[in-house]
Give the backbone structure.
Amino acid sequence: MGKVRADAGPFARRPDNSAFKQQRLPAWSPSLTPYTVLPVFYFLALVCVLLGVWLLITVQNTHQLKIDYTDAGACATCAEMRNDPTKAKMNCDCVINFNVPKTFQGDVFIYYGLINFHQNLRRYIKSRDDDQLVGRKNSLKSPSSYCEPFAYDENAVPIAPCGAVANSMFNDSFTLTYHPPAGAAVNVPLYRKGITWYTDKNVKFRNPSTNTTLQQAFQGTAQPPFWQKPVYELDLDHPNNNGFINDDLIVWMREAAFPNFKKLYGILNRAHTTFSYGLPEGNYSIAINYNFPVQYFQGRKEVVLSTVSWFGGQNHFLPIAYLVSGGLIFIVAIVLTAVYVKVGRSGKNMEE
Amino acid sequence: MLVPWRGFWNPRSKAPGQEEERHVKANDRDYNERFTYADNHIKTAKYTFYTFLPINLFEQFQRFANAYFLVLLILQLIPEISSLSWFTTIVPLVLVLTITAVKDATDDYFRHKSDQQVNTRQSQVLIKGKIQKEKWMNVRVGDIIKLENNQFVAADVLLLSSSEPYGLCYIETAELDGETNLKVRQALTVTSDLGADVAKLADFNGEVVCEPPNNKLDKFIGTLYWKDNKYSLDNEKMLLRGCMLRNTEWCFGMVIFAGLQTKLMQNCGRTKFKRTSIDRLMNTLVLWIFGFLICMGIILAIGNTIWEQRVGRNFWAYLLWDELLSSAVFSGFLTFWSYIIILNTVVPISLYVSVEVLRLGHSYFINWDRKMYYSRKDTPAEARTTTLNEELGQVEFIFSDKTGTLTQNIMVFSKCSINGNTYGDVYDEFGHKVDITEKTPCVDFSFNPLMDRKFRFHDSSLVEAIKLEEPLVQEFFRLLALCHTVMPEERSEGQSWPLVYQAQSPDEGALVTAARNFGFVFRARTPETITLYEMGQPVTYQLLAILDFNNVRKRMSVIVRNPKGQLKLYSKGADTIIFDRLEPANEELMYTTSEHLNEFAGEGLRTLALAYKDLDEDMFDEWMKKLLFASAALENREERLGALYEEVEQGLMLLGATAIEDKLQEGVPETISCLTLANIKIWVLTGDKLETAMNIGYSCNMLRDDMNEVFIISSHTMLEVQQELKERFSSSQDVGKTDMYASDSVFEETIIAECALIINGHSLAHALEADLEQILLDVACLCKTVICCRVTPLQKAQVVELVKRHKRAVTLAIGDGANDVSMIKTAHIGVGISGQEGMQAVLASDYSFAQFRYLQRLLLVHGRWSYHRMCNFLCYFFYKNFAFTLVHFWFGFLCGFSAQTVYDQWFITLFNIVYTSLPVLAMGVFDQDVNEQYSLRYPNLYRPGQLNLLFNKRKFFTCTLQGVCTSFILFFIPYGAFLCAVRDDGSHISDQQSFAVTIATSLVIVVSVQIGLDTNYWTAVNHFFIWGSLAVYFAILFAMNSDGIFRIFPSQFPFVGTARNALNQKSVWLVILLTTVVCIMPVVAMRFLKTDLHPTQTDKVRLLQQATRRQGPQEQNLRRVRRTSSRRSAYAFAHQQGYGELITSGKNMKVHTSSTSAVPSSSPGRTHSINCNTLRSHTTCSSFQHYNLGHCMF
C-alpha cells in the first residue's frame, strides 16, 4: 500500500507532512455544552410558540364549510339510482340548501371532497400514461401497458386518456345559487379555469398537436369506459379547455396522497358586485348533477367552501402542532436547566 | 508428439497433486517435459485481462448482500409485484460492484507487477554446454543453474558443487523462516568433484527420484542415480527458492522443483481471512434486519389481505382489476414481495462498500503517519490488511515477542569489571554519576586503526588503563579476543571497516568487537591458530582446544599457546559457574566482582565472568591424550568430554566480568506502561531463557521490585505444574481482591494487583492441556505481567489461541521473526516489526512498522479513532436507513397496503448513494472525538473499545429505534398537515407527489442535521460534504422536476413542477421546520442529559480539551517512567553449542589446510555441528506445517 516514490533518498519513503495526511486538518469541534444547548432550547420553544400563536390567529380568521351531499336530502334518490346498475347511465340532478352563517371574506374556493376514495393505491397511481398525456402521438395510439385494463376498449381502440385514474374521473357538477334575504336568487359565478398548477397545465399536459380540430387529433381513440363524453368535449363552453388540458381532468389526475381528499372545483368570481367582498352570509342552494357513484366503497362526497390564509387553507393541525411542540420544548428546556443547575454546574460528574 | 514411454500414461490428465514420485534427469529437457512439471513461472495474480470480469462478478455475487440485491432486481422485473423501477436497485448495485471491482483490479495489478518482476530476474542456466543468461521464468526442472554470492536461489535446487571446500555452501534463509544466521549446505562428494567444469557439468546426467512437491521446508527425501550408483539425498543438500547464497563465490545446482511447486510457494496458502468482531456483529445485524424486513412484509401482506377483503373489493368493480386480483390472499402474497422490494433499503446495500472505504481511508492514515515512520531505516508504518482497523481500538491482550521486538537484538559492551575496578560509568566533575545519552562524549579510539567505528564507549579511564599497559587489563581483552567462536572476514570492497566479524551470537560479537577497539584485534583464524593484533603488533596463538559451550556447562574455554610458548586456558561463563571453579586465593576479588555483577545486573545488563589459568605442559599433554581418546569414543562421548573439560577448568584465576546491554528498542518501557494504563495486558512470549526474559521484563518495567509476588513456574511434570498453578491461583486471588475496589477515573492511575507470572516452555506444554488451561488462564489474568519463556512458535500460537477462545477478547500479536509467524496469524491482529532483515513476520502480519513503541500510537490513536469512527458510522447508517425506509411502512396503513412508495423513485435510488453517503463517510474518515495528544495522555479513553461500548446490540437497537421514531414523525407530521392543506392560491397540494417531495426534503434535512450532531470534528471536508449534500439534493430535485427533463422522458420523470409548486409554499416549509425540530430536539436533550448526568471519560476529556484550548496550550508533564534498579544476578549466554567443533575441524575455513583433510565426510562430529548450528531453525521449521507463509515473492 505504501507508495514508493521514484527518487530514492535517505527519506524516500517518508510520508508527507501535510495536515491532511497527518490528520491535523483545522477543524471546528462543537460539543453540547450548557451554554449552547440551553439557549437553543429556549429560543426554539419561543419560536415554536410564537409561530403557533400566529398560525392559530390566522386560522381563526379563515372560514370553511363542508356540505356532505352523498345521500343528503334530495340527493338520496340520485344515490339510489347510482346504486341500481340498470339506471347507472341515467342523468340525475338534485338540489341541496345550506346556510352560510358568516360572510366568507376574500377569495372563496369551492372544492369537491371524496372520503374513502383510495387514489393512492399503487396500481391506481401507476395506471396512467404520462407520455400520452403530454400529447405524444405514439402513446395516443398505443398506450402504455400500465394503463391496463383501461388501455384499449373492447374493440381494441386505444383509450385516451388511458388508465384507471382518468377513467374514474369525478364527474359531478355543481351550480351554486345565492338566495339573498331580499330579491331574486343570484347565481354564484365561478372561475372554472385557472384552478390547476401552471406547470401541469402548460408542461405536463399537452394536447396532441394538430392543424385541424381537436376532435380530429383524437381520432382513432376511444373515451374511457366510465366517461359520458369524449375528452375533446369536456368543456363545451371553452373550446381551449378541452382534451388533455381540461382543468378538471388535470386536477383529477394529480392523485391525492390520502383516501380522504378534496380537490379544487372553482373559485368565486368576485367581479360580480354581490360577491366583491366574498361570499355573503345567508342562504344558498347547490344544484348537483349527480353522476359519481361512491356507495360501492362506502365513500362520501362533499362540497367544501373555504377561504385561504398566507399559509394555505383552514388548517388547524399546524398551529396546534407548533404550540404543542413549543410547549414540550419549553418543558424539556426547564428540565435540562434544572438538571444542569443541580448536577452539571457543580461539576461533580466532571471531576478529574 | 512422441508416445510417452510409460504406455498410455497421459500427463495432461494428471493433476499436480496426484504426483506420487518425481523423476528428474539432469540436462535432459526432453525427458523432463514428459511429466508436465511446473516451470519456474509463478503467478499469484488471480485474474487476467479477459477473465477479470466474469470471475470477479462471480466472486462478488457469492457475497450474501450482492446476491440478495440481484434477487431483488429480478423480483422488480415482475410487473405484478414491481413496486419500484428496476433502476432503483441496479444503480446502487452497479456502483457497489464497480467500486469493489476497481479495488480488486488494482490489487491484482500490483500482484501482476510483482510476479513480473520476480519472473524476469536473471539467472545463469547451463544450456547446450554453455552458461547462458535466462529469465527466472524460463528455468525448467532438470536444468543446471549457476548461482553467485548474494543471489537469490531461483528454484528448489539440488546442490551439485560449490566454490567452497567439501562442496559446502552457506545460505541465509531470511525470506523462508526469518533466520538471519548462516546455514550450511553440503553437496554430495561425487557431485562436488564436478566443480566449475562446465563440460563435466553438461555431461552430468544423473536422475533424481524424489518425493512429490510438498510444503515441508525442513524435509526432503530423494535418491540420485548416477553412473549405476545410488546416493541418498536429504534436506542438507537442497537449496530452496527464496534462500540467498552467502559467503560462497558460486555454486551449481540442479533444479528439482520449480515455480509453484517449490517449497516456498507450496507454503503460500492464502492467508487466513480475518474478520473483526464488528464485522461479525454487522453480519448478525444484517440478518436480523432481514428478519425484521420479512416480518414487516408479512404484517403488511396480512394487512393487504384484510384490506382487500373489507375495502378493496369494493374498488374492484370500480377499477376493473377483478380478473387479476380476484383473491385477496393472492393479492396479499404479491404485496409481500412488493413490500420486500420497497423496504429493501433497510438492509443497506452501500453499508459494506462504505465500511470498506472507511477502513481503506483509515489504513491510508496509518501509512501516512509520520509519527510512525522510522527515519533511520526509512520505514513507514504499513497497514497490510485494510479490514481490521477498528479492531485496533478494542485490543485487550498483546502478545509480544522479545528479541527484535522489545529489544533490538543488538548487544553492546557496556561495562566491565577488571580486577576489582569497574569501568563504563561516566562521572561529572562533582563525582556524580551521569546518565549516558546520545550526547555523552565517546572515547576516542583513533589510536587504533583497526577499530570498529560503530563501537561506542564513554568511560575514558579504561583506555587510559590500556595505554598504561596494565597486565590484567590486557589479559582481560586478550581473553575476549581469543575465547570465542567468531569468524573474521576481511572485506576488500568496504574501505571503512574492512574487518567484519561473523558471530554466532550477538553477545560474542559485542565482546570481540570491544576487544578489537581496545587494541586486541582478532584478525584471523585457522583451525589451529588465532592471529591477534595486540596494540598493532601481530601475535599468533596456537589454538590447542576449544572447550565448547553447552547448556549444562554454561561456559566455554580455549586452550592456547602464546608465542612465548606458555600454555593458557581462557574461560568465560556464567558468574556462578566460574566462581565455583576459582582458585581459593581469588576470594576477595570474587566478592568485589560479585558486587559489581549485582550492580550490572541491576541495570538490566547481561553479565559474564572471565577467568584464566596457566597450564602445565606435562599435565596438558596427558589431558590432551585423554581428550583425543574420548572424542574418538562411540559411546557417551559427550559425557566423557564433559568430564574432561571439568577436570581442566579448575583453579581458575578471576579476571573480571563483562556487562553487555541487550539494547531495548526505543521507548519500550514508556510504551508498555502507557498500554498497561490503557488496561491492555501485555504478555511476553519468547524463545529465550528464563533469566534473559526476566531481565528484559525488569528493564521494560513489566516486572518491578515492588511487585507483590512473582510466580515462576518451571516444573517438568503435569502434576507439579497443576500443583503450582493452584497455589498461585489462591494466593493471587488474595492479592487480586484489592483490585476490585480500584477506582477507574481517567485522571488517576489504576491500582492493579502487582503479580507476575513467569512460566517456561516445559510447564507451558503441560499447562496448555485441556485440564489445566482454564486455571492457567485464571492465574495469568490475575497477574499484571505474564512472561512465557522458552516457548516454541507453536506454543506461542497456542497461548494466543487459548486467550482467544476463553476470553472473548481481542488479541494482538507482535513480533519480528519467523518464529512469531504462527502467533501473528493466530491472533486477531498480527503486527510485524519491519525494517529488519527477516521479512516473514511482516509478510504474515496485518500491520507492520519499525519500532515497538509505535504500537502505542497504532492502538491508542489510530485504533481508537478507527473504532470510534466505525461505531458512529454504523449507528448513523442504520438510523438513516430506518428513518428513510419505514416511512413506507406507515404509509402502508393509508394506501391500502398497496406497496405504493412515498418517495419519488429517483429519490429512493439516490438517497443512499448520493444524498447521504458523503457526509457520513467524511465523518467516518475524519472524525476525532479527542485529539491525538489527549488520546495518548489519557489511555483510559481506550476502555470503551475493549468493553465494546460504542457499538453493540443495544446500541443498534437504540439507533434503529431512533430511526423508527424519526420515520414516524417524518410521516405523521406532514400527514396531519397535508390532510386538509391547500396552497395559498387555493389549489391543492395534498397530492401524492407534493407529499413525497415534502417528506423527502424533511428527511434529507433531518439526517443532515443528525450527521451534524454526530460529527465531532468539522473539517473543511465535512462542511463541504454536508452543505454540498444538501445543495446537491436540491439541485437534483429541481433538475428532476424540471420541464426540460420531463419533455425528454415524460414517463420517467412524472414529478415535473412538483418541487417548484410545493417548495414555494410556506406551509410546506412550516412542516419541514416542525418535523426537523421534533426529530432532532429529543436527541439533543438526551445527549445533553447523558453528558450532564453520566459523562463518559471521553466527554470529560473533551471538556478538558476544550477548556485547555480556550486557555491556550499548556505544557503538561507526562508521567515519566523510571527504571527501577534492583539487585539481581542475571546471566545470559546466548551461545550455541557445536560451533567450536566446526572451527577445529576447519570445515568452514577458506584456507585449505592439509592437517584437517582426513576428516571423513560422514563423521558424526560434522553432522553434529551442522545440526547444532541450525538448532534454532529447527524449532522454527517444525512448526511450519502449522502455518503458511503469507505472500511469497519468490
About this structure: DSSP finds 41 helices and 34 strands in chain B. The two ends of chain B are 33 Å apart (CA to CA).
